[in-house]
Amino acid sequence: MYTLNQMLLALLCLFFINISFTQNEKDQEKKPIVVIDPGHGGKDPGAMTLKGIKEKDIVLAIASKMVVLNDTLFDNPLRLFFTRYTDTLIALRDRTLLAKTLKADIFISIHCNQAINTTAAGTEVFIYPKSEAQASASTYLGLTIQQGLADILGIKKRELKYGNFQVLRESDSKAAILLELGFLSQTDEAIYLNKEESQDAIALVILQSIIKFLGL
Fold it and tell me: Would residue 159 show up in a list of annotated catalytic residues for this protein?
């Protein structure tokens, strides 16, 4: 049988656990929501090298590393969601639907590039301005990430472009970009992007850039 003191102590513990859980939920709700869209997946490999390195694998690996870094290195300042967590193909409309449902502050579609010109190299950022405010925010986010990748990792920058991509066209996030990390048709960039340490570094720079953009 429990004594009265033991019962009171148990009730008190449950009370404070409930308060703590509720507070954690409220803290989570205050955090900015970022949807990361690892391009392609499943039967759609995206860009590929002659040695079979696939875009879909590189971008998913980088996205996965962002979650780990967000939780461990930055003390979880962002609520990160993916459009795909595994090697599966998700319809484009469902990728933007997720961001709309979550009311995401930021939407970033991550890709690798490919070109007939095998010397083409560097990052590209695409935006689809739906309003002056979104165009400004998307431009700032994209250029912040590009500059970080250039300054910290030495990755060449290419120009910011307007892209009529469905994932951007249907996005209503405050900032939405499509980020091309480099060209798999360029030998050095393909080798770099396929290295785990490079993917760690890219994930870190993207996270830092998001945090800088949000002013956290």
Answer: no
